[in-house]
């Protein structure tokens, strides 16, 4: 029983499953597979997604009289066919008209009807299914083009190129554009990274400045608080010193004693003078009234 992811293709008797991760050759177009694809591992049968989805019947402008049928294996006795577009031999998938012996490989059948070759020509070149001249040279490689093969052609400029040369130039141009876009993307990413780094540097620098300012402010605050504490302590000390009695030195003590002794002598002298004055008064009044006072 097939799963939902399995696909049964008319070209193979086993169901094909989606695969990826390996570089293999596609059985339908004989080119390298570099993207997810379908295949049968037991038979080594692999198909591109585009080849797997190629329609069984196709109306193509190069052969408008009949429909082309998808043939997985050439039906000619040689088991090969010649592509009427590029003249190359093929032995895989083809879109064929059995009535006219007309065959196209899948690559040529999918070619665009118009193409821009900006680095080679200023005008859009169109797909011509027959050569406009019996002899014409490719304006890219310089070699003659088979008059029975298709070409990309600009009628106004008589500019013609091989299908292969046009495709190769288109691939190279596409790769170049992709590289330029990738380069621009890398430059933008680098500039964005530099801008982010500059922003981080500015933020880091700003934070460092703020930290320095905060530290300086804290340091000044501590200094100020220290000075205030010292000032308060000095005031308290001075206040306590003012309240405390000054210690008396030996010299000051001697002076104090001398001053007290002089005061005592002065009081004695004053008492003696008072007594003398009283004696003088008794001498004048009479001795019997005199009272003696001793100190």
TrEMBL record:
Residues in DC1 domain copies: 61-109, 120-166
Annotated Basic residues bias: 212-233
Keyword Repeat: yes
Residue runs in coiled coils: none
Repeat is among the record's keywords: yes
Keywords: Repeat
Region entry Disordered, spans: 172-260
Taxonomy, superkingdom: Eukaryota
Biased composition (Basic and acidic residues): 172-193, 201-211
Entry protein name: OLC1v1001681C1
Organism name: Oldenlandia corymbosa var. corymbosa
């Amino acid at each position: 029983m097939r799963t939902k992811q399995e696909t049964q293709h008319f070209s193979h008797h086993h169901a094909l499953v989606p695969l990826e991760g390996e570089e293999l050759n596609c059985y339908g177009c004989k080119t390298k597979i570099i993207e997810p694809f379908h295949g049968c591992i037991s038979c080594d049968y692999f198909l591109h997604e585009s080849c797997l989805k190629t329609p069984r019947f196709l109306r193509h402008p190069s052969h408008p009289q009949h429909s082309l049928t998808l043939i997985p294996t050439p039906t000619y006795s040689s088991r090969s066919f010649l592509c009427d577009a590029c003249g190359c031999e093929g032995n895989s998938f083809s879109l064929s008209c059995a009535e006219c012996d007309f065959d196209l490989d899948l690559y040529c059948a999918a070619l665009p009807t118009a193409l821009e070759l900006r680095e080679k020509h200023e005008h859009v070149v169109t797909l011509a299914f027959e050569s406009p001249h019996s002899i014409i040279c490719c304006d890219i490689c310089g070699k003659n083009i088979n008059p029975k093969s298709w070409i990309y052609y600009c009628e106004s400029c008589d500019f013609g190129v091989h299908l292969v040369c046009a495709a190769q130039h288109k691939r190279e141009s596409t790769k170049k554009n992709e590289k330029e876009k990738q380069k621009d993307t890398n430059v933008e990413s680098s500039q964005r990274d530099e801008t982010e780094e500059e922003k981080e540097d500015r933020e880091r620098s700003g934070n460092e400045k703020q930290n320095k300012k905060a530290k300086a402010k804290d340091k000044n605050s501590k200094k100020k608080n220290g000075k205030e504490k010292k000032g308060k302590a000095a005031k308290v000390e001075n206040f306590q010193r003012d309240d405390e009695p000054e210690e008396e030195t030996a010299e000051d003590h001697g002076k104090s004693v001398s001053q007290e002794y002089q005061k005592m002598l002065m009081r004695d002298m004053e008492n003696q003078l008072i007594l003398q004055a009283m004696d003088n008064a008794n001498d004048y009044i009479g001795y019997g009234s005199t009272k003696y006072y001793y100190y």
